[in-house]
Write the structure tokens for this entry.
Amino acid sequence: MALDTTNYFSLRSKKKDGSQVDTPVWFVRALDDDSYHVFTNVNSGKVKRVRNFPKVEIAVCDVRGKLLGVWQPARAELVAESDTIYAAFRAKYGLTFRIFDFFSWLGGKHKERQMIQVTTDPEKLHGS
């Protein structure tokens, strides 16, 4: 199953003890077509792990994290939020994202968001 036809991928990131954590996430394609954007809470384990170990893996999965594809090497980095990225999430996930976003704003959690850019292009990964 290709990333363009699914709503979730599992982001596998490495902990300091060497173990790995797989997390199903929403994602949208970045403008450069070689990357994807994921958003999460700035204090989440994903952010800490990406900050320490930018080499990650991704695989298509369902909402519960059941793998539907093979693991692919990738590189993750923390990037700034943008209205363009959020517009892409609203376009892809529709009402579900709007409801999620509404309650995030209502609870003040929108201030704690962090974007992660995940690059899968082999040429960009070669130098990492």
Observations:
- The two ends are 26 Å apart (CA to CA).
- The chain has a mean pLDDT of 87.
